[in-house]
Design goal:
This protein is mainly alpha-helical. Helix content is 36%, strand content 0%. One of its GO terms (biological process) is phosphocreatine biosynthetic process. This is creatine kinase.
Length: 242
C-alpha cells in the first residue's frame, strides 16, 4: 500500500477517550453496538485502501437517526471493511437483517415464474412500480470511498456489459445526472395521498421473495383503502405484530 491514511494517523495522537463520539442521543444500529472499548480496539485499523473505523461510523455520528425508524448508521468503504471491522459490522448486520449471521448464505431466485400476482394490481390505486437492484463489483471500492477514476471505470465496465445485451433487453445507455424522484422516500411528506411503498428487508431473502413481499403488501393496502372508502372496518386485515 503506497499511502497510509495520514488523517487517521493524526487522530491517533489523541487518546481513544478524546476521539470517541458522543452517541448518547443517537438512534441507529451503529450507536447500539459501538462501545468505547470496541472503538479503542478498532480505531487504529484500516483496510488496504485506507478506510478506517471513523470512516465507517461518521455517517451515523453526523445523522443521529429517526425517532421511529432505526437507521443503520455506518457504511463500508470496500470489500475488506466487512472483515477488518467485523466486530462492529457483524452485530449491526444481524440486528438490521433479522439475525443474519456471517455463516448464512444469501438466497437467489431470478425466475419470475415463481412470482404470484403483480400483474393484477388495481390501476386505480397503484400508479407505478419498479424493481431496483444493486450490486458491487469486486476490485472497486464502494461508493462511500471510491474515487472519481473508479466511478468512471465502473461506468465504462457497465456500458460494455449493457451493450452486450440482446433481444428485449437491448437498449441504449444514457448518462443521467439529477433526477426528480417525486413523492416518497423516508422522511418526506405524502403529496396528494400518494405513498412510495418499499420493502425494508434485504439480506436472507431471494429476489422473488422480496418482490413478493411488496406485491402482497400493496394488495393488502389496496384492500384496506377500499374498505375505508366504504366506511368499513379493517381490523381483521391488520397483520399480527411480531
Amino acid at each position: 500500500m503506497p499511502f497510509g491514511n495520514t488523517h487517521n494517523q493524526l487522530k491517533m495522537k489523541f487518546s481513544s477517550e478524546q476521539e470517541y463520539p458522543d452517541l448518547s442521543k443517537h438512534n441507529n444500529h451503529m450507536a447500539k453496538v459501538l462501545t468505547s472499548d470496541l472503538y479503542e480496539r478498532l480505531r487504529s485499523k484500516q483496510t488496504p485502501s485506507g478506510f478506517t473505523l471513523d470512516d465507517v461510523i461518521q455517517t451515523g455520528v453526523d445523522n443521529p437517526g429517526h425517532p421511529f425508524i432505526m437507521t443503520v448508521g455506518c457504511v463500508a468503504g470496500d470489500e475488506e471493511t466487512y472483515e477488518v471491522f467485523k466486530e462492529l459490522l457483524d452485530p449491526v448486520i444481524s440486528d438490521r437483517h433479522g439475525g443474519y449471521k456471517p455463516t448464512d448464505k444469501h438466497k437467489t431466485d431470478l425466475d419470475a415464474a415463481n412470482l404470484k400476482g403483480g400483474d393484477d394490481l388495481d390501476p386505480n390505486y397503484v400508479l407505478s412500480s419498479r424493481v431496483r437492484t444493486g450490486r458491487s463489483i469486486r476490485g472497486f471500492c464502494l461508493p462511500p470511498h471510491c474515487s472519481r477514476g473508479e466511478r468512471r471505470a465502473v461506468e465504462k465496465l457497465s456500458i460494455e456489459a449493457l451493450a452486450s445485451l440482446t433481444g428485449d433487453l437491448k437498449g441504449k445507455y444514457y448518462a443521467l445526472r439529477l433526477q426528480t424522484r417525486g413523492t416518497g422516500g423516508v422522511d418526506t411528506a405524502a403529496v396528494g395521498g400518494v405513498f412510495d411503498i418499499s420493502n425494508a428487508d434485504r439480506l436472507g431473502f431471494s429476489e422473488v421473495e422480496l418482490v413478493q413481499m411488496v406485491v402482497d403488501g400493496v394488495k393488502l393496502l389496496v384492500d384496506m383503502e377500499k374498505r375505508l372508502e366504504k366506511g368499513e372496518s379493517i381490523d381483521d386485515l391488520m397483520p399480527q405484530q411480531k
